[in-house]
Amino acid sequence: MIVAGVHSGSPHDGDWPAIHAYLTATKPDILFVAFGHPRQNYWIDQHRAELPAAVAIGVGGAFDFVAGVTVRAPAWMRRFGLEWLHRLAREPWRWRRMLKLPVFAARVVLQRFGFSGSAHNTA
Which has the least CB within 10 A, 13, 62, 73, 91? Predict the structure, then answer.
């Protein structure tokens, strides 16, 4: 794998010309966008027609974990699937986002068993 480059831009519209010029010059095949959720998703959607990359992926804070900037939960918490609780304790402002997780899980289960309420259910 060859890293074409890195750029420390922002999702603000004023930064788009510089980001676009950089992407055009480096011609990445895959673009990792780490503006955080949901800004990175909106940004990718807003600029996808102009992105020179074939694939754009919102990675949120994943690189912070890989680089050791954000501390992972202890191994015992990860084993029991409680890393989310560790993150909530370290970053309490995430509580609103965490409230959406049970709703998401319920929708996945309902859709899996054919109770999505969607007229175009593709199981």
Answer: 13
Q: What is the DSSP string of 44-73?
A: HHHHTTT--SSEEEE-TTHHHHHTTSSPPP
11 pLDDT more than 80? yes
Work out the burial of residue 58: count CB atoms within 10 Å of its CB; fewer than 13 is exposed, 13-18 middle, 19 or more buried: buried
Question: Over 60: is that where the pLDDT of 112 sits?
Answer: yes
Residue 105 belongs to what domain range?
74-117
pLDDT of 120: 53
Burial of 31 (0-12, 13-18, 19+ CB in 10 A): buried
Residue 32, pLDDT score:
95
Distance CA(42)–CA(48), nearest Å, equals 10
Per-chain mean pLDDT for the chain: 87
**pTM for the complete prediction?**
0.67
Answer whether residue 78 is part of any domain. yes
Task: Indicate if 66 and 36 belong to the same structural domain.
Answer: yes
CA atoms of 77 and 54, how far apart (whole Å): 37
Specify whether 29 is located in the same domain as 43.
yes
